[in-house]
Amino acid sequence: MPGAARSGRQDGGVRSKTSRGGHIKLCVDKTFYLAHIIIWRHVTGEWPPTEIDHRNGCGSDNWWLNLRCGGKAVNAQNLHRPLITNSTGYLGVVPVGDKFEARITVDNKQRRIGGFDTAKEAGEAHLAAKRLLHPGCTI
Question: pTM, whole model, 2 decimals?
Fold first, then answer.
């Protein structure tokens, strides 16, 4: 039957999937695109000139007011959670012996904030510095 959908084939439908980072991908003409890129293009009429950042740190929240153009630096400054490889559970905190050190990167240079007795204290110091030194920070 011409035009009828065959088993296992999608005609006229939208396919989507989620990336490892939690971003939604949409299939357009057999090619997957990040949903926030498609939304940016739809609203502005242009492809984004740099990376798109999700203000609230949630890669699947593609509400227009949650998106901003900012590049890698803004994206990195807007981390809300430590990476999975971080053993302390706090952003910008690394264990050093039996103490903890808070560090922050500004202008591609890593700076030492200070040494602390607990990871929590170091995490609080990092967060305070982040709010002061990272214009892309929204926490």
Answer: 0.65
